């Protein structure tokens, strides 16, 4: 996106803390659901109480650091604060959803708030009469923010959709809390099952980084207790600056070696892939199963050649998805850039849960299996029970995709 567009949109959002962005949507004549469409600018002025259902979106815009007390932009017109990009992109996706919902006649008011506003502003907002009218909270959050919004949602008896943070944040006994980005435990169970399905008879080497905790190993070990097919896992600890010779003893000669990167350290993962590639053959490449944060790595680089790389992810947008192609063209023509993952997440989260709120009201627990309004991928939202009390702690999306890349090209998505 060009920086002028960023600054313009950013300036509009700076006003939104005082006057939240509202998408006042009027009823449409009866008829079937229409496909999502291109975005139109949403109103940036406060509206009277409409009787419509209310949705609050929290996203990290860092407006206080971008604008001074008089509302003047702290940077020049060619500069945009990088820390605000993800939050703004999430909101851009939400705007796509707003326009689609408007065209379908869905009755909602949408409010956007800066989750990185000062503590005083946040406390004032959450205690306000305006906020007490909310029916649904959607957040792009960090750990402490997830805890705060989940607590507020429980008090208000409304759902809180955590769109990005892959952790329960220690939250228990809160059926209002929904995690869309699966936890590390869910990924580890998914990886174990993937290995069972594809490499159950193979020797598998799990490379760990020295100094890391044992969460990944413990998750594998715990799941192993409840499954009939036990994998032949061998755990090997490596220094962070290891070299190819440290891998050599574990890489078989003529047969491909199946490996797991047992660390969330992206730099460790990159080094592991690069060193394994040097020991790999194009006719029978070694296989490395990585972590969910590997989607940030550029595997097209030559140092990853001849290695089969697989990693799990909850969000995958197929190249054949027509709506995604339309979004990409819109960004290309308007902003001269490609939409990020956060654009798609903002779009799908608001569109999907906006529809569910309209259909089922604030009690979404019984409607989590409704998938009519998915846009790019799929959710499999399941209740997570507390093993000690056997009560519902929260809901979590359990859907995982496994992306296989060779020489940087996606070969298969499982």
UniProtKB/TrEMBL annotation:
InterPro entries: Peripla_BP_I (IPR028082). Keywords: Signal. Residues 29-48 are annotated as: Disordered. It comes from the Bacteria. Residues 1-23 form the signal peptide. This is Leucine-binding protein domain-containing protein. It comes from Niastella soli. The lineage of its organism: Bacteria, Pseudomonadati, Bacteroidota, Chitinophagia, Chitinophagales.
């Amino acid at each position: 996106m060009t920086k002028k567009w960023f600054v313009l949109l950013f300036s509009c959002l700076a006003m939104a803390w005082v006057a939240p962005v509202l998408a006042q949507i009027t009823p449409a004549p009866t008829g079937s659901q229409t496909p999502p469409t291109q975005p139109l600018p949403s109103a940036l002025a406060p509206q009277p109480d409409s009787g419509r259902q209310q949705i609050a979106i929290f996203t990290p815009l860092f407006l206080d650091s971008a604008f001074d007390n008089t509302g003047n932009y702290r940077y020049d017109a060619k500069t945009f604060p990088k820390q605000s990009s993800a939050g703004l992109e999430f909101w851009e996706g939400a705007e796509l959803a707003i326009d689609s919902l408007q065209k379908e006649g869905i009755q909602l008011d949408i409010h956007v708030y800066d989750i990185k506003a000062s503590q005083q502003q946040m406390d004032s907002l959450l205690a306000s009469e305006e906020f007490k009218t909310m029916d649904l909270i959607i957040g792009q959050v960090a750990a402490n923010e997830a805890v705060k919004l989940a607590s507020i949602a429980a008090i208000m008896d409304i759902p809180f959709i955590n769109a990005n943070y892959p952790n329960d944040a220690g939250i228990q006994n809160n059926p209002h809390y929904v995690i869309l980005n699966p936890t590390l435990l869910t990924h580890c169970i998914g990886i174990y099952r993937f290995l069972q399905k594809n490499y159950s008879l193979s020797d598998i080497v799990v490379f760990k980084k020295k100094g890391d905790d044992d969460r990944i190993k413990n998750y594998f070990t715990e799941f192993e207790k409840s499954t009939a097919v036990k994998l032949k896992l061998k755990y090997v600890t490596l220094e962070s600056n290891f070299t190819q010779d440290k891998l050599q003893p574990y890489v078989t000669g003529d047969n491909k070696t199946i490996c797991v990167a047992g660390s969330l350290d992206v730099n460790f993962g990159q080094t592991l892939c690069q060193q394994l590639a040097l020991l790999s053959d194009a006719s029978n490449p070694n296989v490395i199963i990585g972590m969910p944060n590997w989607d940030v790595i550029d595997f097209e680089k030559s140092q990853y050649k001849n290695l089969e790389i697989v990693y799990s992810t909850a969000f995958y947008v197929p190249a054949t998805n027509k709506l995604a192609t339309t979004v990409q063209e819109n960004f290309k023509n308007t902003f001269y850039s490609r939409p990020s993952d956060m654009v798609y997440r903002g779009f799908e989260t608001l569109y999907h849960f906006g529809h569910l709120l309209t259909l089922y009201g604030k009690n979404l627990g019984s409607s989590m299996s409704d998938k009519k309004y998915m846009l790019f991928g799929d959710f499999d939202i399941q209740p997570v029970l507390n093993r000690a009390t056997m009560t519902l702690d929260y809901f979590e999306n359990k859907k995982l995709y496994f992306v296989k890349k060779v020489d940087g090209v996606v070969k298969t998505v499982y």
